[in-house]
Design a protein that fits this description.
The structure is a homodimer. By secondary structure, chain A is of the alpha/beta class. Chain A has 12 helices and 7 strands. In chain A, α1 (about 25-35) packs antiparallel against α5.
C-alpha cells in the first residue's frame, strides 16, 4: 500500500531493509521462496519489504525449443560465471505436465555439480498451464535471488509457447538457443524470436547444418528492420556438451550488458517494472471484480441472457462493469 | 448493454433478427468481417444484434506444429464436408511475422480449388503478436460465419505457442495433427496437447515412424487420467496429400460431435461462452481503469515510487486500484 506521505516531494532517500536473506541466510531465502509458491500472505508482505533491495542482478533468460540443449548450456554458463567470481541464481522452469518431464529433469541433474557450491542457488518452478507460460511466481523468485545478492540470475524456460514471450518481461539479456536439423518449418518461429533475442546461441555447432543455421539467422537479421534503439542480436556458436564457445558467449553477454547500461537500458528496466505493475493491476482488478460479481443477482441475470445468446459476451461485460463499478459506457 | 426489462422473469422467446448476412449476402458478410478487423464501432453493434443467430455451426479447430500439413488436411476436410452437403467456413490464422509466412501462405493457395464454390467461405487472419495467439477477432469472425449459416467452421491455427491453447476456447472439436520425425523432444508438448485434443490426427502416415507416433499416443492416453466427463481422444491416421483416411477422420469428428451433444456438450458450450464473457470483462475493465489512471496525479506518484523500487509492483497495483475504484484491500 502506498503511504500518501511518501509523495513526489519526499527526498529520494532509501532506508534499506536489513534482513537475514540479504545477510546470506540461504535457509531463510529457500523458505521465503516456498512460502511465495504456496501463496502464504506473510511471504508476500516480506517480499514487499525487501523490494528496495532488488534490481541489482543481471538477469539472463535462456529459451529455445525442447532438445536444443538449454540445460547443458546453463550448466556451462554457471561454471563460467562462477569462475570469474560472480554468484549465480538459476530459475529452471519445468513443464507442469506429468509426461516428458523425466528427460528434462534428468538433464537438470547435471546441475548437481554446482550443488556443493554455496555461490550457486538453483530453484525449479513448474510452468503455468499445459503449454508453457512462466510460473506466476517467476518474478518473485528472481526478486528473492536478487536480494540474496546473486550478481547473475539465469532463467531457463521450457521453450514451449508462451514462456518464450514471457521471458522478455524479466530478463535483461535473452539468449535464444537454436540447433541444426529442425528444418525450414521453424523459420516462422525464428522470425518471431528475432523480436526477443539479445543473442542467438547456435548450439551443437559440431553438427552438419550449424553453419547454415548461422547463415539463415544472418540473412534474417540483415533484412529485418529492428525497432529503433534496439541493437541487432549477436550470434554465437557453441558446443555446450564440450564447453566450446562458452567464453565467447560470456563475452557477448557482457557486451550486451554494458550496451544496455546507458539510459536506454534504464528505460527498458523501468518499462519492464511498469509492465509488471500493469499485469498485477489487470489481474487484481479482475479478481476483485469477479469476487463482487459472482453470485450477485445481476450476475445471475446477465449470465442467463448470455447462455440464451440474447446478449453477446462483449455487451454482457459492459453490463457487468456497470453493475460492479458503476462505469457506464 | 443489458436491458433491465429483460430480467429472468421475461419469457424466453427470441425475436430472431432478420439480416442480409443471414439471408446469404456474402458481400455484406465480408464487409462486416473487414469492419470488425478495423474495429469500426458500428460493426460491433451489428454483430451484437446478430448474436442470437449464432451457436448453430459445429466449430472444428485444427492445430499442430508448422509443417505437419494442417493446410492440406483442412483442404481435404473442406472437400469431404462439401461432398455430403455441409456448407463450410474456414478461418486461417497466418503468422503475423513478415518472415516464413511465404510457404504457409503458399499452402493456402491449394484452398483455391474451393474458391469458386459458393458453399465455402475462407477468411485469413493475422495471428496476435510474435509467437502466435489467435487474433482477437477470431471469435467475431466465427460468429459471422455462423450467422451466414455455415454448418461447419474450421479454424486452422499457426500451431505455435499460445494459439494452440486459445483454440479450445472456440472449437467444439479440436484436431491435433502429429507427424513422424519430430523426435522424442516433443513428448512434453504432446502431453500438453492431451488436454486439448478431441482427436489426434497422425498425418504423413506413409512415412517411417507413423506407427510409432500412434503407439506413443496410445501409451500416453492409457496412462493419462483424464478429467471426469472428458472422453479419451481418438487417433486417426491420414495421408492428407492423397486424401487417405479423410473419410475415417470425418466419421471420428461426427462421433465426437454426437458424443458432445448431450447435456455435457451444452455445459461445455455454456462454459466457453462464459469464458469469452470473463475475458471481455477482464480486458474492458483493465482498459477503462488504465484510461482513468494514466496521467492522473496518483499515477505519477505511484509510478515514481515503483521506478525507485520504493514500492513493489503488486503493492503499487493495490494502491492504484484504491485510487481508481476506491476498493481498499
Amino acid at each position: 500500500m502506498a503511504d500518501n506521505a511518501q509523495g513526489p516531494d519526499r527526498p529520494v532517500e532509501r532506508v534499506m531493509p536489513d534482513h537475514a536473506i540479504a545477510r546470506g541466510d540461504i535457509g531463510a531465502a529457500a523458505r521465503l521462496m516456498s512460502d511465495l509458491d504456496d501463496e502464504v500472505p506473510a511471504a508476500r508482505a516480506q517480499l514487499r519489504q525487501l523490494f528496495p533491495l532488488t534490481g541489482r542482478a543481471h538477469v539472463i533468460g535462456v529459451t529455445g525449443a525442447p532438445g536444443s540443449g538449454k540445460s547443458t548450456l546453463v550448466d556451462q554458463l554457471v561454471g563460467a560465471f562462477r569462475q570469474r567470481g560472480d554468484t549465480v541464481g538459476v530459475v529452471a522452469i519445468d513443464p507442469s505436465s506429468p509426461f516428458g518431464g523425466g528427460a528434462i529433469l534428468g538433464d537438470r541433474l547435471r546441475m548437481q555439480r554446482h550443488s556443493v557450491d554455496e555461490g550457486v542457488f538453483v530453484r525449479s518452478l513448474a510452468s503455468r498451464g499445459y503449454l508453457g507460460g512462466l510460473s506466476r511466481s517467476t518474478g518473485d523468485i528472481i526478486d528473492v535471488m536478487d536480494v540474496m545478492g546473486k550478481t547473475v540470475i539465469i532463467v531457463e524456460t521450457v521453450g514451449v509457447g508462451q514462456d518464450e514471450i514471457d521471458i522478455m518481461r524479466f530478463a535483461d539479456t535473452v539468449l535464444v538457443v537454436q540447433v541444426p536439423g529442425l528444418g525450414d518449418d521453424v523459420q516462422a518461429i525464428k522470425a518471431g524470436l528475432l523480436e526477443i533475442a539479445s543473442i542467438f546461441v547456435v548450439n551443437k555447432s559440431d553438427l552438419d547444418g550449424a553453419d547454415q543455421v548461422v547463415r539463415d539467422l544472418e540473412s534474417m537479421l540483415s533484412t529485418k528492420t529492428l525497432r529503433p534503439g534496439i541493437a541487432t542480436p549477436g550470434i554465437v556458436k557453441v558446443q555446450a556438451t564440450r564447453g566450446r564457445g562458452i567464453a565467447e558467449l560470456v563475452e557477448a553477454v557482457d557486451r550486451h550488458r554494458s550496451d544496455s547500461h546507458g539510459s536506454d537500458g534504464m528505460q527498458t528496466r523501468h518499462r519492464r517494472l511498469e509492465h509488471r505493475f500493469y499485469e498485477c493491476l489487470r489481474e487484481a482488478l479482475f479478481a476483485e471484480a469477479c469476487r463482487r460479481f459472482k453470485g450477485s443477482a445481476a450476475a445471475e441475470r446477465i449470465l442467463a441472457e448470455l447462455r440464451d445468446r440474447r446478449i453477446d459476451p462483449s455487451s454482457a461485460a459492459t453490463a457487468a462493469i456497470e453493475q460492479i463499478v458503476g462505469w457506464a459506457s
